[in-house]
Design goal:
five-stranded mixed beta sheet, binds pyridoxal-5'-phosphate, alpha/beta, single chain, globular
Length: 476
């Protein structure tokens, strides 16, 4: 792992450092196991063809190591499972809601909380509450469901992330930052009254899990304030973002992840959250805001689309597990081992010369599919192809994040053509061991070494919305 800029941060600061190698391990031990199945190449050939070469359409039973997503795939702690038994399943006013509300207020600092079934439920509510047809929403690179809900309300997303984020090799400690000149240009062009809010994501998923600096959020907030524009945060992986600030930004080395998280949120007017990521639960989400007016609108719509404003689609027990997960996600040693595991996998791949997005982000390793298949045109879906090949080799499931995920331009109907054509190996929290990471790295190497002559794919079924979930392909 000698090539990463982050070696020191993943090592606990013990006296052992003076004597050469001292390993570190996760701050937990395993109490219950779930068997997984190993398949033959023949079985995998059949499974991927039946799935239309789309890893989203594979049966999970046919998968050996599942790195499709870190969403809802975390292992809960014994405390969280104990919390599940304390579910208060009252329709209204569940005590678990008040515990959840108190922890969001305590750790994120927002005033009003609306629970939702997961992140996109909250995205729906905030988009519906704030966006008018013809509005423009600037943000630091799009996320699929976020943009879909902004567009469904008649808004248009405009990317204002720094240019470096689109270059998979560019080394930048905060590659998720907003480019203030780009944001100013959008305000000048459309006028502040057409911009209901700026949509800021902590660790930018589509850029490779890249963080935003505290300095950047402060500057964005100041710019928004000058124009009377609100700033809302996609807090889905904001605790991971806080870890990167602690590691890389001057003045934060001695602050805890919890302190950094709260300070960052204090520069924003509210946040939506997919609790299925940072918060170590299998389902859940929320919207939290400081404006009572926005809260009133959102907490009215939530009863139409999700459920009463004291459960929003979650069972009482789910809210309890989430309230506890919020406490666990900000523990510094948890975050160090979570991101340390991602870096372990990335470090192996780098050592072996496999092209991945740099710097290594918080939740995943992103393979640069364009460099696996330099001859393959983007219209033949190199990242989709690579994800299928990886499954075929070893039963490892990854996710396409390239032209298929980017969808079509609403006006022209042509494919959006992102610069990044990536395959995401997403690491679930507290689920796999270092040996699973070794097996994964070896499989990626085998696919990379055998990449020459690989055929691309043709799309044979394309759903209208969020096509990457359900599209089907055939080999060319
Ligand atoms: C997953 C995710 C969402 C959507 O949340 P769901 O819980 O999947 O509905 C929104 N933003 C980001 C950055 C995400 O990763």
């Amino acid at each position: 792992m000698g090539t990463t800029m982050n070696d020191d941060a993943v090592q606990p600061k013990t006296m052992g450092q003076q004597f050469g190698r001292r390993s570190w391990a996760e701050p937990w031990k395993i109490k219950m196991v779930e068997p997984i199945k190993m398949t033959t190449r023949e079985e995998r050939e059949r499974a991927i063809r039946e799935a239309g070469f789309n890893t989203f359409l594979l049966k999970s039973e046919d998968v050996y190591i599942d790195l499709l997503t870190d969403s809802g795939t975390s292992a809960m702690s014994d405390r969280q499972w104990a919390g599940m038994m304390l579910g208060d399943e009252a329709y209204a006013g569940s005590r678990n809601f008040y515990h959840l509300e108190a922890n969001i207020q305590k750790y994120y600092g927002y005033k009003y909380v609306v629970p939702t079934h997961q992140g996109r439920g909250a995205e729906h509510l905030i988009s519906r509450a704030l966006i008018e047809p013809g509005d423009v929403i600037p943000g630091n690179m799009y996320f699929t469901t976020t943009r879909a809900h902004q567009e469904l309300q008649g808004g248009a997303f405009v990317d204002v992330i720094i240019d470096e984020a689109h270059d998979p090799q560019y080394e930048h400690p905060f590659k998720g930052n907003i480019d203030l000149d780009k944001l100013q240009a959008v305000i000048d062009k459309h006028g502040a009254e057409k911009i209901p809010y700026v949509s800021l994501a902590g660790t930018v998923n589509m850029a490779g899990g890249q963080p935003v600096s505290m300095e950047n959020v402060r500057a964005v907030k100041a710019l928004c304030d000058r124009h009377g524009i609100a700033l809302y945060l996609d807090a889905t992986r904001m605790a991971e973002n806080a870890f990167f600030i602690q590691e890389r930004e001057a003045g934060y080395a001695n602050k805890s992840v919890a302190e950094i998280l709260k300070e960052f949120c204090s520069y924003t007017d509210g946040a939506w959250m997919s609790a299925k990521k940072d918060s170590l639960v299998n389902i859940g989400g929320w919207l939290a805001v400081n404006s009572q007016e926005v809260y009133d609108i959102a907490s009215n719509w939530v009863v139409v689309f999700e459920g009463l404003h004291t459960y929003g689609g979650m069972a009482g027990r789910d809210m309890e597990a989430l309230a506890i997960g919020i406490e666990e996600q900000v523990q510094d040693d948890h975050m160090r081992s979570r991101i340390g595991q991602v870096r372990y996998l990335g470090g192996l791949l780098e050592e072996w010369g496999i092209p991945i997005v740099r710097p290594i982000g918080g939740h995943a390793i992103f393979l640069d599919a364009k460099r696996f298949y330099p001859e393959m045109p983007q219209d033949e879906f190199p990242a989709q192809t690579l994800a299928a090949e990886l499954y075929l080799d070893s039963g490892i499931r990854a996710m396409e994040r390239g032209i298929v995920s980017a969808g079509r331009n609403a006006a022209t109907g042509d494919h959006n053509r992102p610069k990044l054509e990536l395959v995401r190996l997403t690491i679930p929290r507290r689920v796999y061991t270092q040996a699973h990471m070794d097996v994964t790295a070896e499989a990626v190497k085998a696919v990379y070494d055998g990449a020459a002559g690989t055929c691309g794919l043709r799309m044979v079924y394309e759903p209208k919305y969020l096509r990457f979930f359900q599209a089907r392909f055939e080999r060319l």
